[in-house]
Design goal:
This protein has 5 helices and 6 strands, in the order H-E-H-E-H-E-H-E-H-E-E. By secondary structure, the protein is an alpha/beta fold. The chain has a single domain, classed as HUPs (Rossmann fold, 3-Layer(aba) Sandwich), CATH 3.40.50.620. The strands form 2 sheets. The protein has a 4-stranded parallel beta sheet, with helices on both faces. The protein starts with 6 loop residues before the first helix and ends in a 6-residue tail after the last strand. It holds the Pfam family ETF. One of its GO terms (cellular component) is mitochondrial matrix.
Length: 148
C-alpha cells in the first residue's frame, strides 16, 4: 500500500539547512570534509560550509567549486590558528543563531569528535556521532560493536 507523504514533511524538507564545518590546513580541504558534504546532501535542503582559519581563501575557493554547496562562510582570524574546538565553538553557535541551521556536521575525525559535542552542549541538543549512513533527516545508521 502506498501512502501520500504527510504535507508537513515537504514543508520541513524545504526549510532544512545544514552547516558543514570544513576541516583543512589553510591550504586544502581534508578528504573527510568532502565526505561530510556528501552526507549533508542526503539530509536534504541547502548545504553551507564554514571555513575558519588564518589565511583560508584558497580553501574557501576550493569549497565554492564543490557541487551541492550553496554557500561558503569564511571566518579568518588569528584566534582560529590552531583550529581549537574551544575557539571554534562560539563561532559555530553564533553562525547557527544567525542562519538557524537544522543540522551541523563535521567529519568523524579527531577534529570533528572534539568539536561537535561542544557545539551540541552549547545548543542543548544531543550529538549523533560515527554515522555510516543517512536514511532520512532523522534516521541514521551507526556501527554496532559487540564483545564476544
Amino acid at each position: 500500500m502506498l501512502q501520500k507523504p504527510f504535507p508537513a514533511a515537504s514543508v520541513l524538507r524545504r526549510c532544512q539547512s545544514t552547516l558543514v564545518v570544513a576541516e583543512h590546513n589553510n591550504e586544502s580541504l581534508t578528504p573527510i570534509t568532502l565526505n561530510t558534504i556528501t552526507a549533508a546532501q542526503r539530509l536534504g535542503g541547502e548545504v553551507s560550509c564554514l571555513v575558519a582559519g588564518t589565511s583560508c581563501d584558497k580553501v574557501a575557493s576550493e569549497l565554492s567549486k564543490v557541487q551541492g554547496v550553496a554557500k561558503v562562510l569564511v571566518a579568518q582570524h588569528d584566534v582560529y590558528k590552531g583550529f581549537l574546538a574551544e575557539e571554534l565553538t562560539p563561532l559555530i553557535v553564533e553562525t547557527h543563531k544567525k542562519f538557524n541551521y537544522t543540522h551541523i556536521c563535521a567529519g568523524a575525525s579527531a577534529f570533528g569528535k572534539n568539536l561537535i559535542p561542544r557545539v551540541a552542549g552549547k545548543l542543548d541538543v544531543a550529538p549523533v556521532s560515527d554515522i555510516i549512513e543517512i536514511k532520512s533527516p532523522d534516521t541514521f545508521v551507526r556501527t554496532i560493536y559487540a564483545v564476544l
